[in-house]
Design goal:
5-stranded parallel β-sheet, 16 helices, disordered C terminus
Length: 403
């Protein structure tokens, strides 16, 4: 039997160096890769991921994604609270950081020889029933969908587009929650004239300590959707783990049809950061769990260039996810529209392109904390919403007319 291959998540704890030296000298397993960010945990080939309970990008979603690739997760803890967290996240096994290298190797070899129980169960169900399908022919939903909304550069109006989509989808009868996960410039609460507390940090505490429920941190907007405000101060970004943000979003998908998540326009991977996923890990990890991405840009040559740069930074994360580009504050003629569509279509190949015109009434709406009023901008956002929910949305619009 070949040696088990290991992926070790970046850590400052001494167990990692001890394990690395032991297997190099004595065998029994081999270190395949050092994981610096969550994409590596999914892209690289190995048998067992060994990861600290305090790793910033560790989340229940990451554990599930690793296990679905027929790999195992061995969590490492120092305190009982850490062991409890690992259990709740669903790791295959947990081990104390004080355990000997021999114990680490023994646990790794045992895990590598096992098959994930959920995979065996899934195979059994598939053999018995095949893929479940709803009566109208749509695949059965396992929960709400996550749409990540970000900007190709700052100040492009991504928050306005986010609010417009929340309003439009709620009008169509969908239950909608908006989450401000922008840890660089969180402004959703201010835009909607809502309290800063409770917020996404409160929801993370509920997930970590089971001291309450995530819905308890939500605010209700008169537009018919729920809101989870962002960090009261972006300087607090170092106090949160990207994985906790994903756990909050994942939990919300159990209560809402759609979870719209506002992410930072800064998404590049910064290497050499001891936190593992880098300064902008929240945005990158949310993009990794999204069902579709809405990218907002300005309709200028510079705006097009920033779209291309943004995709270069995120291509390894979003892959073939549906990408919907909204060019905001569009005022040029049809020639400019055609030029943009041609260049973006050739270089990027998005799922859809929407042009949202400049609307002076949005300034008043922002001061009042209200949703975008009826008009050309709202009509454009409705077209973008059609692309996000092409089947279900059209059916609901027939039941409940829009503007």
């Amino acid at each position: 039997m070949s040696e088990a291959s290991i992926a070790i998540a970046a850590t400052g704890r001494s167990w990692a160096l001890g394990l690395h030296r032991f297997v190099a000298d004595h065998g029994g397993a081999r270190v395949r890769v050092r994981v610096m960010h969550p994409e590596q945990a999914l892209e690289e080939a190995y048998d067992v991921l060994v990861i600290d309970d305090v790793t910033s990008f560790l989340s229940a979603h990451l554990v599930q994604q690793v296990q679905r690739r027929d790999r195992k997760v061995l969590g490492v803890f120092e305190e009982p609270a850490g062991e409890n967290r690992l259990t709740k996240l669903g790791v295959n096994a947990a081990i104390s950081a004080e355990a000997s290298p021999e114990s680490f190797v023994g646990a790794i070899v045992t895990l590598a020889a096992q098959r994930n129980v959920d995979e065996e169960f899934a195979d059994l169900i598939a053999d018995l029933h095949g893929d479940e399908v709803e009566p109208d022919g749509e695949p059965a939903a396992a929960g709400g969908r996550v749409f990540a909304v970000g900007g190709a550069g700052g100040g492009v109006g991504s928050t306005e587009v986010l609010v417009g989509l929340a309003d439009e989808l709620a009008r169509r009868g969908l239950s909608v929650c908006v989450v401000d996960a922008d840890d660089v410039a969180p402004v959703l609460a201010q835009r909607l004239d809502m309290p800063l507390h409770p917020n996404v940090r409160s929801a993370m505490d509920y997930v970590q300590h089971h001291s309450g429920s995530v819905p308890a941190a939500l605010h209700s907007h008169p537009g018919g959707f729920s809101v989870l405000p962002g960090l009261p101060n972006p300087r607090d970004w170092e106090d949160i783990r990207a994985g906790d943000t994903v756990d909050v979003v994942t939990e919300l998908t159990g209560s809402f049809d759609v979870v719209l998540v506002n992410v930072s326009h800064l998404v590049e991977q910064l290497v050499g950061n001891p936190r593992g996923e880098g300064r902008f890990g929240v945005a990158r990890l949310v993009l990794g769990v999204a069902d579709a991405v809405v990218l907002v840009a300005v309709p200028t040559p510079m705006g097009v260039g920033r779209v291309i740069e943004w995709l270069a930074d995120t291509q390894s994360i979003i892959g073939d996810l549906p990408l919907h580009i909204v060019f905001n504050r569009f005022e040029d003629g049809l020639f400019a529209r055609g030029e943009i569509e041609q260049e973006i279509g050739e270089v990027v190949g998005p799922t859809s392109i929407t042009f949202a015109p400049y609307d002076r009434s949005l300034v008043k709406a922002a001061w009042e904390g209200s949703v975008p009023p009826a008009g050309a901008f709202a009509d454009a956002i409705a077209r973008a919403a059609d692309q996000l929910t092409p089947i279900r949305a059209h059916r609901l619009r027939r039941l409940r007319p829009g503007r």
